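Following up on my earlier message about 4-O-methyl-beta-D-glucopyranuronic acid. Here are the inputs again, as you asked, copied directly from the submission form:
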Amino acid sequence: MNPLTEREQSDDGYRLWLRYERVDEPRLCEAYRAVFRSIHFPGAGDSLDAARHELDHALRGLLGAAPQWEESAAAASFLIGTPSSSAACASWAEALALAVVGDEGFVVRGELSRGGPGAIFANSERGVLYGVFALLRALQTRQPLATLNLRERPKLALRMLNHWDNLDRSIERGYAGASLWDWHKLPHYVTPRITDYARANASLGINAAALTNVNANARVLTEPYLQKVQAIADVLRPYGIRVFLTARFNAPSELDRLETSDPLDARVVAWWQHKVKQIYARIPDFGGFLVKANSEGQPGPQDFGRSQAEGANLLARALEPHGGIVVWRAFVYDAAVPEDRHKQAFDELVPLDGQFRPNACLQTKNGAIDFQPREPFHPLFGAMPKTPMFLEFQITQEYLGCATHLVYLGPLFKETLDADTHVAGPGSTVLKVITGALAKHTLTGMAGVSNIGDERNWCGHPFAAANWYAFGRLAWDPELSAESIADEWLRRTFTNDARFVAAAQRIMLDSREAAVEYMTPLGLHHLMAESHHYGPGPWVTGLERDDWTATYYHRADAAGLGFDRTKTGSNAIAQYAPAVQRKHERLDTCPENLLLWFHHVPWAHRMQSGRSLWDELCYVYSRGVERARSMHTRWLTLEGCIDAGRFEHVRQLLEIQVREARWWRDACLLYFQTFSGRPIPEALEPPQGTLEEYRTHRDYYVPGI
Ligand code: GCW
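Thanks, got it. Here's what our run produced:
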């Protein structure tokens, strides 16, 4: 085919997983058509309209014909509604125990009774919308409808994206173009992309979005910007998404020249009350504030000698009468404290357990350092039972090859969710901490730092959208598996071709471990280049803060490698429950994939493989490169299974990934060799370049800083 035509016919990724291509299995298509012969979907309301519109659009695509809308329930083959929008739903509500699915859940049935109509029933308009998307997922993944019986209710109340988007449209740690929020043209021009963003989120059940960077600009709280925020909120509302903003703690002083922003000062209290009122006048369903305080230069309550809880409560009190909440980030660490950064948030926050207002929660990163390729779970999970605790993941790949490397984060997310904190005995997983199952909280949630920008395909790498998808699916149901999520994402995004799905799923599932192994194996962390964090920088040292350097974290010396966090070192390990401590404190029981996180290990230490630590390091780095290579070769076998445009895009990016996996491995091994003084085993490839070349290499203008 002419390459130009080929490009024109390629999928540009804009539709994400909401591709409603024709069902090309004729019998299945016929069966689907029979179910949707005539749809009874009464009722008015913005979310019902959004659901109806989506269904209409999707069925036209999937089944090749516009659905017939039927006024009479008795004559219809499919029924949709809530007990108040549809008498048919009301009559079925009890038999289906609809009340049990709660305000956002739904029941989707291929048949209500044998041979009878199918249905989507829910208690709210939003539930109907989610039900429609669940049905479409079933169709896109070619489920048989007769036996389809979904009964879902989200396990977390807040399922939230955090955009680190600045008002100039740059995105901190964003690798997919500029911010979707075009502040300059808002509120008068509202791009239709925001509607498509809302559809994609609603299809996963994401119900909240913090629009602005946690390194906050107070200006977003001024009247002209609130008008712009209002325009965005109006588009998101029908899709069940509530808007949050980041609140800069010293906004009273910055915006209105108050001489203090002390949370206990009456003028400051009044300022926030007034500000919050002003926001709710424009956005009646405003979600609340997301706050990063006294961390990495952000202002906060400690500037006035007050605690993090006093700071959070100032905003919580202002929001309380309007139904808003404060999401207070636990990512706090202090330049003045020479303590292991791993320990600081815990030391500071645990004594405040019980002091937060009921509408305030703490949002804690999955690990105690910073979104590394692999971290043990954060010791704060389970350590503050009186405080609602949200889990924060980073969807954008700050430390995982930005939007250049294919790294499917499903396995990383699951590893944290399934980690056992042991705080209330075995089985006290992080999942149970955040769903409130252990401490019985109702303010529950999960946040993901967004990887979305204005690039045509939204997330840059054609596979990066899988991480947005996996986050959303797990926020709805953290018990789903990374495997099943990859499978459905591939089918919806590319094709149901079984050969493609199996091979691409394999690539996805291998990719996170590949990245860990070629970047930071065996529990190493923060070896990335300075500032932009792209590529290796194990030699980074002497920055303004020690704990922003690589040498602080790997502690390589002639004796060995790794950060001793046991009793003989920083003793961060003591922040975990005794069972977790016991497992990790000994060299022979600590899982090897976290060994150098917790221990400074002699180069000659015998690993489970029988090799010395040094040799093992060489082997694991090399295995990471091999994994990247096999991701690439496996992809090459898939040519022709999908459109040429996306195939080629991924192919080229995987080539970069293979090259850079090698770069990581060679640079790190040569650097660590200067300490171990041992040779790279002969069975392994020798490094391609010299340490000097790697050390002096600079990447300029990496996006996302
Ligand atoms: O990972 C670090 C990033 C910062 C970020 C910070 C945070 C928004 O390098 O860019 O700032 O974490 O989570 O607050």
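One observation from looking it over: The chain has a mean pLDDT of 97. Hope that helps, and feel free to reply on this thread.
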